[in-house]
């Protein structure tokens, strides 16, 4: 039996599709788990578990659940290894600019410089045995928005497999993860659409065919702020405090694990579209495509071979 469901969570509409003897019950439990993730992992809710960590910055450590601790630990490791191209401590800048929220604005340069001092991942201290997280500087804030949806997608797919699902798809808005054979194709591959930057949702530049993969797309064309003829997007440079400057408007990464797709779409946005694909080609097990502001599309090696 196949069941489908759409649910509004995490600032988007999540699409769920799964085949299982008790598919409706499985989706009901899936939604419960997603609601739980949102409640505990949200950086925008002071009463969330992550919110409590941020509220205690500069004061005391906070014990968190094992899964949240593990994701914070992974995000810190990635932050340090990518030289801040990905930064879990970006929270102060996200909250200062508020891009994507109704009160978004261009901050005073002095305020930006003040917040830059607080986006240091080295100041995120972790005690593994106690699952404690301590932010050394007052005003620091962890924001897992660049990695959390990928983690959630991977966890849901793992749960579905444990329950014996035959196939499934979860789409968390720009983050798609599939398992098993698609019922719509002879070879079992899933066709995942790639959004055309700057156009209404659902208008595609094309589709990629995948099996048991994740397809993550990050772009600067939806969450943005336009002020006095200038456009500011939501992907920040930790070193300047301003949105990144790049010719890229959209980057898609195809990987086995969705969390890896999230990491690489964020880390590679620091480069031009052409350079991002050049670097992606050096990573084993990753494919992708990038679109620049003139609409030119750059494909990774394997995708170029399938054009």
UniProtKB/TrEMBL annotation:
Catalytic activity as recorded in UniProt: L-threonyl-[protein] + FAD = FMN-L-threonyl-[protein] + AMP + H(+)
Cofactor note: Magnesium. Can also use manganese.
Gene Ontology MF terms in the entry: metal ion binding; transferase activity
Annotated positions binding Mg(2+): 146, 266
Signal peptide (UniProt feature, chain positions): none
Family (UniProt): Belongs to the ApbE family.
The protein, known as: FAD:protein FMN transferase
UniProt KW Secreted keyword: no
CC cofactor: Mg(2+); Mn(2+)
Catalytic EC class: transferase
A Pfam family of this chain: ApbE
EC number(s) given by UniProt: 2.7.1.180
Keywords: FAD, Flavoprotein, Magnesium, Metal-binding, Transferase
Species: Aerococcus christensenii
